[in-house]
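User: Can you predict the 3D structure for this chain?
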Amino acid sequence: MKNFSTSSSRLLAAALFCGVTAVPAHAKTIVCEFKPNAPDSHTVVKGDTLWGISGTFLDKPWCWPQVWGMNKEEIANPHWIYPGQIVWFDREAGRLRLGNKVGGDGTTGDMRLGPQLRTEGLGKDAVQSIPSGAIEPFLTQPLIIEEDELKNAPRIIATRGARVFIGKDDKAYVRGDLKGNTSFQVFRPGKPLKDPITKKTIALEAFYLGTLKLDAPAEAGSDVHTFIVASAKEEMGKGDLLMAMPPMPMQNYVPHPPEVEVNASVLAVYGGVTHAGQNQVVSINRGKLDGLDIGSVLQLYHRGEVVPDPGASKGALNLRKPTVKLPDERVGSLFIFRVFKHISYGLIMQVTEPVVVGDIAKTAE
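Assistant: Here is the predicted structure, written as structure tokens:
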């Protein structure tokens, strides 16, 4: 099988960036290269992900949009690939293409397609961007609460029969402006999340407790509504806050580098641990206002230590030894799958060492 040469891959990267995919002037130019041993094709099977398929052909899986020739609009509007289809490496054109098996004998035709734009609901068999099992709780549950979201949030002020805690099918009395919503999530603010650099609190961790459904709206002259507990993950009670049920965020945005240069820090590691590994979730201190969107991929680094240089002050009297910062060490990749204003959730990919709070997450090089 003929391999794609390094020199050819560099020419391809130049052609892609100069032609099909526009790169903003303020963004880094990322060199996209096919693996020297990239296969001629890959037959998509159930359980495949866009990240995994891309990694079969490319050194950098987030180069997927470039080798398909996608523009910004196409990246933001998911394209689906299904089991049974074939991803072809068109070596002459330097592109990946999509085809289907034809004929009853299992042979393939020469038909080449592009990834198909979704026109109706997400197909249940469609290939996802990343493994969904690790991120499902983070897609709908408000585990991060930004400061402005706490303002005027509806809250539980009483329970039926003055019970301390309530569970499924119990009644709760809620005061506040529902803004026309009828389904809510219940949460309890937890510890503050502080920026590792500025040390300022930028959000709160939230404990997700369950969901409430409106049973009877407030009567005229009152702002107290009656709710029924629809589901209970934990016990809830007076003082707990409500947030309108969010729509399910899109899960299948195409892996891609952010349009702007991002330099972030890891805020928190989830799962009750201090170190995170492959397929674990962390939050970072950058969000949509900083140029991130769903599907953005960042590289993870251990922050280089600042150490003294014993030889720099030899012969000097009564002087402190100067210090020097060691290089940051790359340890993995981070796929951004949920974005708030100033904070994002990311799934750790291709990690070589455990990730800790304070590690760097920045635009891929």
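Confidence is low (pLDDT under 50) at residues 1-27, 102-113, 116-122. The CA atoms of residues 192 and 204 lie 4 Å apart.
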